[in-house]
Design goal:
With 273 residues, this protein is mostly helical. The protein contains 13 helices and no strands. The longest helix is centred in the first third of the chain and has 34 residues.
Length: 273
């Protein structure tokens, strides 16, 4: 008998068995529905045709060659790996400190403050782009790396705040009191007691902040200048001007990169259990 076949209890009726198989089939169908639109772009990145269409006339690596030899794509990649890590660092630091502070105290207007902090998650991104452009243009931060990093940090910080706050819901604050009573300072207590416990939430928030910054295109269209073009903006420009499988090659590498980040996060979580 095949090991992967289920072993039903003796009291299971044919309807129970049918429901078991139907539920698994539905889950597989939903997974395919979510993944196929993403995975379908991968074979197109190896197409010998200059059009993004099936069936493919043949296989070729020319679009990867175009990607790695193009100055525009190289500049966009460099900018993305400058902006995203810097924005992630700022968002993770500020978001973690904010979440720890909010979890420790109760005060009037805390709910209102939380609404303001998570506003970038719910406000339409076009509104954020226009407002930040109008504000940054007056203070000279438009068309600069600093302005782009600050906006991306503001977009990613709410994810850090929410994930760290969720982690702190199960945190035993008696550990902090015990550390302080034994003579440790607040800073030492945070780094040696609080941070190791909430590290999975911090890492998850940082990953969300990085993905938000790395994939963001709308605000970048408003804030970034010609020298701050990121990968998503370069892809958007390529789609508007000249669609070719080079974009599929970039998308494939981004899929692999994002998958590697998720696997790394799960590996870190597994080591901490």
């Amino acid at each position: 008998m095949l090991n992967w076949l289920p072993v039903f209890p003796a009291y299971a009726t044919p309807l129970d068995k049918l429901g078991w198989w139907a539920l698994r089939a539905l889950c597989v169908a939903m997974l395919a529905f979510l993944l196929l639109p993403i995975l379908v772009i991968i074979p197109l990145s190896f197409s010998a045709s200059s059009f993004l269409a099936y069936p493919m006339p043949g296989w070729s690596l020319q679009w990867y060659h175009n990607l790695f030899t193009s100055d525009d794509w190289a500049r966009a990649t460099r900018n993305s790996f400058i902006v995203a890590p810097a924005a992630t660092l700022i968002a993770t630091t500020l978001g973690t400190l904010t979440a720890v502070g909010l979890a420790r105290v109760q005060f009037a207007g805390k709910g209102l403050l939380m609404s303001v902090l998570i506003a970038p998650m719910v406000v339409p991104i076009v509104v954020v782009g226009v407002s930040t452009y109008l504000f940054f243009a007056k203070i000279g931060l438009a068309d600069t790396y600093l302005g782009l990093i600050l906006v991306h940090a503001a977009l990613g910080a709410p994810f850090v705040v929410t994930t760290v706050l969720a982690t702190l819901q199960g945190f035993n604050h008696n550990l902090v009191r015990a550390s302080l009573s034994l003579g440790a300072g607040p800073v030492q207590t945070f780094f040696r007691v609080t941070l190791p416990v909430i590290a999975p939430g911090v890492i998850s928030g940082a990953l969300f902040a990085f993905a938000t910054s790395f994939d963001e295109v709308v605000v970048t269209l408003f804030i970034a200048g010609p020298t701050q073009v990121t990968l998503p903006r370069q892809m958007f420009t390529g789609i508007r001007e000249n669609i070719n499988p080079t974009i599929a090659a970039v998308a494939t590498l981004l899929i692999l990169f994002t998958t590697a980040l998720m696997l790394a996060l799960e590996w870190i979580r597994g080591r901490r259990r």
